[in-house]
Design goal:
Blueprint lengths: L8 H11 L29 E8 L5 E7 L7 E7 L5 E7 L5 E9 L2 E8 L2 E7 L6 E7 L6 E7 L3 E8 L13 E8 L4 E6 L6 E8 L2 E7 L6 E6 L1
């Protein structure tokens, strides 16, 4: 019987980490091993489900985004919202054809902003906090295979970062593309774009500090992390 799991990244990372300390991953032999309060899994509609990004919410619960299924034929963007104990509040899936990614989440006052990719194009989806219903679903072609990795708010809407013209279409972590930033209005419609390929081949994260945008990612050929800023 196939097991459908979303919240299993902790187990994977724990296995990798403890394997470096003792061969059998016996936590009793690891004095710094954390204790857990609860463990919960939630299934997607496909054979395998896994998370890429999780965050705590203003209501005390958690929200996680990732995929269910496999690239490039059956992957769907999967969002799971739980309460503070991991009990399911709601879950949603989004897809067109089989190449879809769920990369990160931003909590706004009136919704959750989901970053990712739908049918090989950048996607920004806003969901109602209570039931997960769609407030807007913006699918933007930034060139070739492209996706949004992360997003922050601006005075006029949002600034999302990611990549375009990806070479490795089956990789969900480093796609060998060109770094790209997109300004969007409050409804997720594209206002303008910035080519970051001279600095970054894959933009992963963006943050705001002192009226500057700081963008973290990978340089050409994933040789190093780089950081740039746009006022």
């Amino acid at each position: 019987m196939n097991c459908f799991k979303l919240f299993f990244l902790i187990a994977i990372f724990s296995s990798i980490a403890c394997g470096k300390v003792n061969k059998d991953c016996n936590q009793n032999n690891y004095p710094n091993a954390p204790t857990h309060s609860w463990y919960v899994s939630h299934q997607g509609s496909q054979e395998e489900s896994h998370g890429h990004f999780i965050m705590s919410c203003q209501d005390g619960g958690f929200i996680q985004v990732g995929e269910t299924g496999f690239l490039p034929n059956s992957a769907k963007l999967l969002v799971v919202k739980t309460d503070e104990n991991g009990n399911l509040s709601w879950k949603k899936e989004f897809h067109e054809n089989g190449h879809n990614l769920g990369n990160s989440i931003l909590e706004d006052d009136d919704g959750y902003i989901i970053c990712g990719e739908i049918n090989e194009n950048s996607a920004l989806i806003k969901l109602n906090k209570t039931d997960g219903n769609v407030i807007f679903n913006a699918n933007i072609d930034n060139g070739g295979l492209d996706a949004f990795e992360h997003v922050t708010k601006t005075e006029n809407g949002f600034l999302a970062v990611g990549y375009n013209q990806a070479y490795d279409v089956t990789n969900t972590f480093y796609t060998e593309g060109n770094g790209y930033a997109t300004f969007l209005d409050s409804n997720g419609q594209k206002l303008s774009g910035i080519d970051l390929s001279n600095y970054i081949s894959h933009a992963y994260r963006i943050n705001v500090h002192n009226n500057h945008y700081f963008i973290a990612g990978l340089s050409s050929n994933a040789e190093a992390y780089v950081l740039t800023q746009n006022g």
